[in-house]
Every structure is written in structure tokens, then in C-alpha cells.
Design goal:
The chain has 227 residues and is an alpha/beta fold. It has a single domain (4-226), classed as P-loop containing nucleotide triphosphate hydrolases (Rossmann fold, 3-Layer(aba) Sandwich). It is built from ten helices and ten strands. Helix 8 (182-193) links the parallel strand 9 (168-174) and strand 10 (197-201). The chain binds adenosine-5'-diphosphate and magnesium ion. Adenosine-5'-diphosphate binds at residues 8, 11-17, 174, 176, 201, 203-204.
Length: 227
Amino acid sequence: MKSLFITGTDTDVGKTYITAGLAITLRKMSIDVGVMKPFAAGVAQKKGFKSEDVEILSNAAQINDSETLVNPQFFPISASPYTAWKKLKIKPKIPLILSSFKKLSKKHDMMLVEGMGGTLTPILKNYYITNLIKDMKIPTVIVTRSKVGTVNHTLMTVMMCQKYKIPIKGIIINNFDKGYPINQLKKDLENLTGIKVLGSIPFIKDMSDQSLYRIFKKNIDMKSLLQ
Ligand SMILES: Nc1ncnc2c1ncn2[C@@H]1O[C@H](COP(=O)(O)OP(=O)(O)O)[C@@H](O)[C@H]1O
Ligand SMILES: [Mg+2]
């Protein structure tokens, strides 16, 4: 079973919630799924995990892996790893990320790794999220939104993955902010990229495990995701 890197066309497109929904669904399919957020950033939470994303992902997968493995580096600033490095003098450690990923991969059947921002979020000079995906040697799933303008962002993301020769498992449309008619968007993205749209997720009111499982099972082609 292949691990997946969940990237997105931008920050706030729903990477965390889509990754959580997938983790819950895989878990309910009796797959031992682990999660990872290599770099997280923002104001640290006062209780529990420093990063809210890490908390959401760990709860979704119901794992008890240590925070330092799931999220090897946390930057207490809302910025890319590169900017955090320049401002806070905390250098992003790629070997640490890769060794943590290897350890977690040995513990679980499959890993879901949430990216940060988009594909060209800088980590080091000339080293982007795309380089990290390439070094992890796993395929990616691209999360897009449904707002007008998403086609441009999705095509740029797909082209960047292709430039780095990263296999793209599929696209998931997070249809939470509407705008583009969803069937048209799905057709346009598939025709323009040749990549399968694995499904679209509506606006979710109830974020409980049961609700996410129901929504993801109904709307996502899990078989293609796992192929
Ligand atoms: N399908 C959805 N339904 C309702 N709210 C959503 C949905 N997807 C994302 N959100 C909300 O949008 C915000 C950004 O989503 P998030 O998953 O954190 O994005 P990212 O990880 O890409 O930065 C969150 O506050 C989340 O609650
Ligand atoms: Mg996130």
C-alpha cells in the first residue's frame, strides 16, 4: 500500500480536513494509517499538540505516535519554513523529516503526509515542497477548491508536480466555498490535466468521525486512491 502526500493549490484549501477525512475512512476500512505533518507553523496551542493541524490529524488516525515524529519541526510563526528560518534562525532539517517518515512508515501500513501551503512553499533556498515529496518518494493527491480561479491554481500545481516527476494519484475538490459548478469543474480539470478527480467534498457542518466517514465514503473514490 502506498503512502500519500496531500498537497494543495494554496494554504486554507482544506488539506488538513481532507487528510483527516481520508485517515478516518482508511481506519474504518481496517487500514492501519499513520499521519505526518513534517513542518507546522503558527501560534502554538496552549494545551496538547503545538499545532492544531497535528492534533486534528492525530485524532483522526487515532495514533499514539510521539509529536516529535508526527511533526518533527514546528515554527512559532505563520510563515513558510524558509521564512521561519530566516526570521527565527531555526533551520529546516530535511534528514530529520525523512528519518521520522521512515520510522513511522515502518509502524503503519500506510502514511498520509500533509504538506504546507502549496507545492512551491519554500523550505530552503532552491528546495520546495516538491523537493520534499520527491525525497519521500511517494505519490501526491492535490486538494483544490471550487472558487473561480481554481483551474489556474490547479494547472500550475499539476505542472509543477510533473516538472519534478512526482506521480499524481488524483485531485480532490473541496467544494466548501462554491463558485464553479462542480460537474463542470470536474470535467474541465480532467480534460485539461488528464488526471482523475477522485471526488468532491461538500461543506461539512458536522466534523465528527462518523459524519466525515459517511461523507468521504460516499464522495471519494477510495479504490482509485488505494490503487
Ligand atoms: N469541506 C469543508 N467544510 C467546511 N469547512 C471546511 C471544509 N474544508 C475546510 N474547511 C475549513 O476551512 C479552513 C481551512 O481548512 P484547512 O483544512 O485547515 O486548510 P489547509 O490545511 O489547506 O490550510 C478550516 O477552518 C476548516 O474548518
Ligand atoms: Mg493544514
